[in-house]
Amino acid sequence: MSDDIIGKKFNRLTVIEKIGSKNRHSIYKCLCECGNYTEVYRSSLTTNDIKSCGCLRDQFYKETAINAIKKYQADGTNIAYIKSTKLSKSNKSGVKGVYQKKNGKWCAQIMFKRKCYNLGTFINKEDATKARKEAEEKRDEYLREKGLL
Ligand SMILES: [Zn+2]
Fold this sequence. Notes:
The protein is α+β, with helices and mostly antiparallel strands and 149 residues long. 34% of the residues lie in helices and 29% in strands. A four-stranded antiparallel sheet has the order 1-2-3-4.
């Protein structure tokens, strides 16, 4: 009955097995195209609410942030500020733009014009750091292209 979706693919996720249920909602272990495993409610799969392990969302966040940078830089503004490696007082991770949330997960962000852009939420600090570095690299790439760096 509820195993009818095993082996099926929903967007980036292939259903591997049913692993349990919560509040009468079945939870399935899924393999994402990117290679990560994730646990998803059946309804989230069938309604297309969740389409990946989070990599699609993270990709979206990164693209949003990069687009914001491009707009910002097109205005011709403060390179010194965004290139500053100084950590804020509230930063406990030791990595700029990476914070641990109360639930233990790691959040990556990048700031422009006092606005904070989310780069995704990660279980590991390493993955959050990687997302932040990727966004920084793309930003620098763009700045070099424009001859601003
Ligand atoms: Zn993925």
